Amino acid sequence: MSSTKILYTATATVIGGREGHAKSSDGVLDLQLVVPKELGGPGGAGSNPEQLFAAGYAACFEGAMRFVARQKSIALKDASVTAHVGIGPREPTGFGIAVKLDVSLPGLDRAVAQELVDVAHRDICPYSHATRGNVDVTITLV
């Protein structure tokens, strides 16, 4: 059993799977899902689970770094995180994902920036906790 005290629960419903429609319970998220051409789909206007995961992880990771920076009284001005989420077949069956996070912390000493990244990934970010041991995650300071 998890020791997490839940403070907020996001709820979304998808009808039609990867070629369907996604909508959050509050209606803020309301979008068409489309299979990318690279996965044999038509591509075009619409999102996909990998894009949504990338956006969520990038937002969460930057938030985690900002949390650590506040704890250490470090000012972050132009921080950004770009998440790349790849999907492909895995052995022996099914599919897996891999994540690459490109972190930009301009104006910070590289050692300080690396410490923020390390602490955020190891101790704070829930996406990092959820993927640890399940998904290959590479983080690069750019």
TrEMBL record:
Q: Which Gene Ontology terms describe the biological processes this protein takes part in?
A: response to oxidative stress
Quote any Pfam family the record assigns: OsmC
InterPro entries listed in its UniProt record:
KH_dom-like_a/b (IPR015946), OHR (IPR019953), OsmC/Ohr_fam (IPR003718), OsmC/Ohrsf (IPR036102)
Among PANTHER family, the record links this protein to:
ORGANIC HYDROPEROXIDE RESISTANCE PROTEIN-LIKE (PTHR33797:SF2)
In which family does this protein belong, per the annotation? Belongs to the OsmC/Ohr family.
What name has this protein been given in UniProt? Organic hydroperoxide resistance protein
- The record lists the organism as Dyella soli
